[in-house]
Design goal:
Layout (H helix, E strand, L loop, with lengths): L1 E2 L2 E2 L2 E4 L5 E4 L2 H6 L4 E4 L22 E4 L4 E8 L14 E6 L2 E8 L6 E7 L2 E3 L11 E4 L4 E7 L2 E3 L5 E3 L1
Parallel strand pairs: 5-6, 6-8, 7-9, 8-10, 9-12, 10-13, 11-14, 12-15
Antiparallel strand pairs: 1-2, 3-4, 3-5
Length: 164
């Protein structure tokens, strides 16, 4: 299966309920995906071209990575200032069996809750002064973020999990 000139490495259901395929997570998220299934052990990018991150999420997202390596790609939450409400409300993000994936951005607005669950995720950076390998990095003082990290590891990175 091809998507443009790139091989498809993920399947998802779009906002209209149709099954589609993507070469990266960003295209699926932009198309309204709430659940993404990655090809086993795929060399995965968040964005197949350009910056290796999604636009700021606007809905829940679950990724079944199946061992895919995301090459330090980022699932973006709130890319504006901390406390801004780019999401319409509470959001759940779940990532299973991923390598080198990051959830990052700024904290939600007061009264908004984000639940982040990461299971069997493993990140390894390039050194303790490098940001490659960070697993969760959120800045700000507003809203509520609940993070559950089960059987995950980070190594050779400046900050593994950080709430500023």
């Amino acid at each position: 299966m091809q998507t443009g000139n790139k091989p498809a490495v993920a399947a998802y259901v779009d906002s209209n309920g149709a099954t589609k395929y993507a070469a990266g997570v960003k295209a699926a998220v932009t198309d309204g995906a709430t659940v993404i299934y990655c090809k086993k052990d795929a060399d995965m990018k968040i964005n197949e071209t350009g910056t290796n991150r999604t636009e700021a999420l606007t809905n829940d997202l679950t990724i079944y990575a199946n061992g895919a390596d995301f090459d330090y790609g980022e699932i973006a939450l709130n890319l504006s200032t901390a406390g801004a409400n780019t999401l319409t409300g509470n959001v759940d993000i779940k990532v299973y069996d991923a390598k080198n994936i990051k959830i990052g951005g700024n904290t939600p607005a007061d009264g908004v809750t984000w639940n982040i669950e990461m299971v069997n995720c493993h990140n390894e950076g390039n050194g303790t002064t490098d940001s490659n390998g960070e697993m969760i990095l959120l800045s700000g003082k507003t809203g509520t973020v609940n993070a559950t990290v089960t059987n995950c590891s980070v190594a050779k990175v400046d900050l593994g999990i950080y709430f500023g």
